[in-house]
Write a structure and sequence with these properties.
The chain has 122 residues and is mostly helical. It contains four helices and no strands.
């Protein structure tokens, strides 16, 4: 059950990033008001931070059996980087240009995929 929760929450996090990226690009092309993007981002933030929290807690639970595995160290380091990028982005996004926001979103997506790659190696 713990592994299932971990995989579902990680899927929500990474799948949400991909989906949000596609939706934001489409909404921008249609010229939708920025307030709509802000509402989308806030809702995604609630869902994604919850998913990340569940993934973190279940990951801690499961990692007890994997202590000493090099892939676990890589995964944990990538989780810390990703969470830091996401937290900074969420706090600073209102004051960033669309280009800078996009760069941070891309970095968060890439580092999230790095977490998945490290997880597969476990």
């Amino acid at each position: 059950m713990v592994r299932w929760l971990h995989l579902v929450s990680a899927s929500v996090w990474v799948g949400g990033l991909v989906t949000l990226g596609a939706l934001v690009a489409a909404v921008r092309r249609e010229g939708v008001d920025r307030s709509v993007l802000q509402v989308m981002a806030r809702m995604f933030g609630r869902v994604s931070w919850t998913a990340m929290g569940v993934a973190f807690l279940t990951g801690v639970w499961m990692s007890i059996d994997l202590i000493g595995e090099p892939a676990l160290a890589v995964k944990l380091a990538t989780v810390v980087v990703t969470a830091g990028l996401a937290a900074y982005h969420q706090m600073a996004a209102a004051n960033q240009t669309p280009r800078t926001r996009g760069i941070f979103q891309g970095l968060i997506l890439l580092s999230s995929l790095g977490i998945v790659a490290a997880a597969v190696a476990l």
